[in-house]
Design a protein that fits this description.
Two copies of one chain form a homodimer. In chain A, 69% of the residues lie in helices and 0% in strands. Chain A has nine helices and no strands. At the A-B interface, helix 7, helix 8 and helix 9 of A face helix 7, helix 8 and helix 9 of B. Chain B binds a DNA duplex through helix 3.
DNA sequence: TGCAGATCCTGAACACCGTTCAGTAGTTTT
DNA sequence: AAAACTACTGAACGGTGTTCAGGATCTGCA
């Protein structure tokens, strides 16, 4: 009986439709405009219907959040072509910053928004974060294997690097770098990053 | 005619009462519970009255935001007793992190929340941020004067330090460090900070 | 003292939000 | 044909920020 399966597929279709709509509104209008009611208008169903396919708004946000990581992974996929691990590490940092600027809304939902998604409560519930961070740690470990970062622990250094780059992106996206004069604005973030890389290169 | 002045003082009294109430709710119940209506209940006026003293909710948030910086400044005031500038710099970092943990809601409104406050649009509108950052820059400059950080620009390095420490705090507060195993949780942030300091100490 | 005018405040409304639930059509099974 | 099941919705509940006409009280002047 392929009946249950068809029912199941219809169900998945509807979920996909809702998510697609949520994604459209998220990208077009921004985070705050992704409301159950707006999604309902877009898919031409009543708001109540959405609750037949998703527990609540957070479940929809969680899906967007997962999607954002997929986009990120694709965005940095071409790094594998870089042979030297240190160069790859630096390129990852650059790509990370470029991603934050290109998809600020994605970045927000990935690393900033607190929206009570239970997905950040432990590593099992946030596989994308775990995976992305494992990639970074692997890179740092490779660099160590080449004789770099001799006196530093790879895991800790990974966190240090992540924190720095995220801090930079976060401050920029949250408009906290406007304290700098206008003429410095375009370069200051890049300068800080390059300085960090320079120091890192000598360790 | 002290009449106009008395009117003016009453006006300021009311503004203060509203802010005090907002602050109370903010600390007791959290950011999301600071609503015009909740403030109105607390001060025993109608919601509409609040709009006679503040343009909108953002103006109230801006006041909270300013207050948070005051609390922060007091929190780090005792650093002046530390003679050695590098030690003072390190102590500032530690205090910064301690502040973020002790007053996460303040930290949020200071460095994370985007709420369309126009105060982050340029340096003049965010004097507290400018001042706090000038303090950091001065410290780094002092270190340079002592022969440290020879090859690095003080202004850029200040941003690098700020970014790193903020990144660490931000990731922790937004629950993004839960990807680490439980046994690492208590130490990982401190370890990263200490590693950063160690590297900084050798520059 | 009485009355105009300024001052301060509010009830009610508008347009949103997430969420729930009784109930209604339409299809399928018996 | 009747019963059961499915997919859906209208209307409501309680919440949000904000606006505005109008009511109450207080002030200064005739």
């Amino acid at each position: 009986m392929g009946l249950k399966e068809r029912k199941e597929r219809n169900r998945e279709d509807m979920r996909a439709r809702i998510l697609k709509s949520a994604h459209k509104i998220f990208v077009d209008k921004g985070f705050d405009d992704v409301s159950i009611r707006n999604i309902a208008v877009d898919i031409e169903y009543s708001p109540a219907t959405i609750y037949l396919y998703f527990k609540d708004k957070n479940e929809i946000f969680y899906a967007l959040h997962t999607e954002a990581f997929k986009v990120f992974n694709e965005y940095v996929a071409d790094l594998v072509s870089i042979k030297d691990p240190f160069k790859r590490l630096v390129a990852l940092g650059r790509k990370f910053m470029a991603f934050a600027r290109k998809y600020p809304k994605y970045y927000d939902i990935m690393f900033i928004t607190m929206a009570p998604m239970d997905c950040h409560l432990n590593k099992d519930k946030w596989p994308e974060g775990t995976k992305a961070h494992a990639f970074l740690e692997g890179l740092v470990a490779e660099c160590k294997a080449q004789g770099r970062f001799k006196k530093l622990d790879a895991q800790i250094l990974s966190l240090t690097i992540w924190s720095f780059v995220h801090g930079l992106c976060s401050l920029e996206l949250q408009n906290r770098l406007r304290i700098y004069p206008d003429e410095l604005q375009p370069t200051i973030t890049r300068d800080s990053f390059e300085q960090f890389v320079k120091v890192l290169g000598n360790l």
